[in-house]
Amino acid sequence: MVVGLGLALAFGLVWALDGDETDGAAQGAVTGTVGVTAPTAPTTTTTLVASPELIQPPRSPEATAATLTRVERALRGEDRDPARIRVLGWEQQLAYRQLSNHADWVAPVVAALPADVAPWVQANLDASSALSKLTPPQTQLPDWTILTPPPPETLRAYYAEAEAQSGIPWAYLAAIHFLETRMGRIRGNSSAGAQGPMQFIPSSWAAYGAGGDVNDNRDAILAAGRYLKAAGGPADMAKAIFAYNHDSGYVTAVESYARNLLADPRAYEGYYHWQVYYRTVDGAVLLPEGYTTGGTIGPRSLPPT
User: Fold this and answer.
1) Which of 30, 31, 154, 294 has an alpha carbon within 20 to 30 A of 72's alpha carbon?
2) What is the pLDDT of residues 6-43, one digit of tens each?
3) Cβ atoms of residues 267 and 261 within 8 Å
4) Does 7-29+145-272 carry CATH code 2.60.40?
5) What Å distances lie between residue 234 and 3, 6, 157, 163, 171, CA to CA?
6) pLDDT tens digit string along 163-172?
7) pTM for the full predicted model
């Protein structure tokens, strides 16, 4: 089986999960101390900014519904300017984070959504609520390195190559990649010893890695396709995903994200730009690309919720 870092990407936050190899939810090790910087600038439209901590999240159910409507539609729109799409992805993540911080907002937000937007948002909410085995806030930061992933078009080509070889629809591979390591941003082993962007334990990598590099995105994605095919996919994707990570909530989350991606592949670019956040006793912090334990790039705080 494959055991992930134990990342529940609930509403745009990275959480460590309790568990072991039997349920696929292995908690990542945490080391280091928390240090944060100050944000911000309010954002009510798609204003191009250099970093997500410069975006002020919506402050009410009405504003959250308006943000999600604007952002979800724009991510599926004709304007594919990379800088604009990047900021839309950041806005999308922060809006869902608000729903995790204000559970009482969820019902009025969903009720206010237009008919075209509601299914996209509901799929994301289904994924988030399925990932429910959250630990308390951590006192120390994880022993991770945060990498810059390959460009989205490169990763899309890897998923397509894996689909051609295995028959596993590309969207499931992308959803697993997203859940496990934020499209390869997170470099760090789980407590169960899982490695690489698709989080293979050594025995599974030996069986399905085809002699490749477990830390290489292409090799890992192709191996995931082989694993899922051997586990029952594409005929029974739920069975295959459960073999990949023995947690029913994980299965629901993968299927929910994949549903959005299959409905409109342009949604991929929003998820691609979601960043790595980590919950600590001092609040959720952004672990930016370039962060490493003991390095010069430290964690960053978010605007108040």
Assistant:
1) 154
2) 443 333 444 332 222 223 322 222 233 333 333 333 34
3) yes
4) no
5) 20, 24, 19, 10, 12
6) 999 999 999 9
7) 0.86
